[in-house]
Amino acid sequence: MNELDASIRIAESLSETRHEVSIDIPNPVFTLNGVSVYYGEYEAIRDVSLDIAQGEITAFIGPSGCGKSTLLRSFNRMNDLIVGARITGRLAYHGTDLYGPEVDPIEVRRRIGMVFQKPNVFPKSIYDNVAYGPRVNKTKGNLDDLVEESLTRAALWDEVKDNLKKSAYALSGGQQQRLVIARCIAVRPEVILMDEPCASLDPIATAKIEDLMHELAGDYTIVIVTHNMQQAARVSDRTAFFTAEVDDAGERHGRLIEYGPTRQLFSAPVDQRTEDYISGRFG
Amino acid sequence: MTIAAPQINEDELRRSLRQMSPRRGEAIMRAILVVAASVSILTTVGIVLSIVIPSIEFFSEVPVWDFLTGTVWTPLFANGEFGVLPLVSGTLMITAIATVVAIPLGLGAAIYLSEYASMRVRKVLKPTLEVLAGIPTVVFGFFALEFLTRVVLVRFFPSIDIFNALSAGLIMGIMIIPTVASLSEDAMSAVPSGLRDGSYALGASKRQTATDVVIPAALSGIVAAFVLGISRAIGETMIVTIAAGLEPRLSFNPLEGMQTMTSYIAAAGAGDLATGSMEYKSIFAVALLLFIITFAMNMISIRLVRRYRQVYQ
Ligand SMILES: Nc1ncnc2c1ncn2[C@@H]1O[C@H](COP(=O)(O)OP(=O)(O)O)[C@@H](O)[C@H]1O
Ligand SMILES: [Mg+2]
Question: For the segment A61-88, what is each residue's pLDDT rounded down to a tens digit?
Fold first, then answer.
């Protein structure tokens, strides 16, 4: 018997362990069962089953190209915008199949917000950036108050309150990313998905975003993709480790290797690959 | 064992650093390219000079103010008047009609191509649009006169002149749609996809994303496309000569025939005017005015394009 078979067997037995972990989560916001995401014929991430806990911060870690972003984008149906992208398996949001025939992706995105790797502020004023979501969603109520509240929540109000009419491009990268978070909060989502939100920021701006995430946790369910393990260890309650496995045909597919409470995953990883990754020996 | 650094013989070094051969090919290539670049610059200078010099003679006899504000253009009469306003108003009327046609249709086509059309549709549509841009303007001119005026417009406006501004303007609008659509589409495609994602992620629809994020982000490029389209319309000659007639008329009724600056130049230039005559010189005065107007339009569009390039660098 060769080593590969052995490791596959270990992985198979671990998939049972993963399942045990996911059952632990009461009232999960998301429940994934055998989710795979394809780009055309290419299966970018394969057979993921996990639950996302309400009001917690869940981190997705793993080497580049293992399908973390792909999986994250399937949570708010952003993959629908990519021609040829499709999903199999079941991805439920509070028990409702997010990909069911009656589900409108636009309604999904109003409840499940997203922050991207590069701060994608609109070429508009600071105020209009935050007001954009409420405007397109025709949110009722006082827009000024909502803008102030959202900017306060994103820890940006004090820095911009005198310059609300200024172009958002005048802000620094870290401020822009907090503006994007404020813009997201203004739609009053339940979940905020963050895809490497600090990848383009310096350490001080990164620390501010991490503080902000702690502030927001509890009120919001946050799922963050990061390939910075220290960040995952600092901010998250639970961590899922993904890696890319090569199949018989030589294609790489993202796989969920291990999922559990962050402290446990970092202190006592069950899978050898997780241990190698977090100790910096791989990826 | 250590490897010794190579011994340097200073004389030999000096020799080896010298140019081995004179690299004549380089110099010849350079000369050819300089000539190529000079031709267009010299031509432009030549055109400007050949317009300006007769114009100066013209303006020594007709005051600039009378030329710009006069309302009667009768250069061929014995005691001809040289008020350019009828030609300017003809140009503006026809350009305005063309703009009203080309901007909504061109922008609509650009939005469709950039935001809605699938890869496959875009692959067919964009080249088709460019074919439209390649149709000779004389064909458009006859289409305006023989089909649009004689077959279509006479049904709706029985009193319409056979030569009229409306038909020339409408067809000219169709002629510049590809310019407007193609350049606007370039500007919209250049908007980073991250901005679209940001909008969709906030629950915006495709239409909201196009009108509230993509168009504002591409605005200066889109305006530059408009300006370029309009300056093409101002400079267009064949369609107006064929379909709008050759009668200078200060009128705001698009159903009447009008002469534009370009069609005056074409018609007067084609006749056999005495070289030193006032009629002859008037061609250059009108050409100078046209040159200044289109030059100004092009400057505006260049500035706008430059500004929109800066945004995403
Ligand atoms: N739009 C796309 N079209 C085709 N393949 C894609 C697309 N986006 C990502 N991929 C592929 O899917 C795999 C996973 O990518 P991604 O989810 O971005 O990984 P990660 O975020 O973990 O770095 C990669 O092999 C990548 O090349
Ligand atoms: Mg990624």
Answer: 999 999 999 999 999 999 999 999 999 9
On whether residue B294 sits in a domain, the answer given is yes
The listed CATH number (3.40.50.300, 3.40.50.2300, 3.40.50.1820, 3.20.20.140) that belongs to domain A5-12+19-118+192-278:
3.40.50.300
Sheet holding A191-195, edge to edge: A96-97, A85-93, A30-39, A42-52, A252-261, A238-246, A57-61, A221-225, A191-195, A112-115
Please name the residues between 94 and 153 in chain A that touch chain B, using a CB distance below 8 Å.
Answer: 106-107, 109-110, 113-114, 116, 118, 120-124, 132-133, 135-137
Residues 6+ apart with CB under 8 A from A164: A125, A126, A127, A147
The total number of structural domains in chain B stands at: 1
Has residue B65 been placed in a domain? no
Q: Is B297 on the interface with A (CB under 8 A)?
A: no
Query: ipTM of the predicted structure?
Result: 0.89
Q: Which atom of ligand 1 is nearest to the CA of A242?
A: 22
Quote the DSSP letter at residue B289. Answer: H
Give pLDDT tens digits for A15-65.
444 433 445 788 899 999 999 999 999 999 999 999 999 999 999 999 999
Query: pLDDT band at residue B2, thresholds of 50, 70 and 90?
Result: low
Name the minimum distance, in Å, from the CA of B193 to any CA of chain A: 9
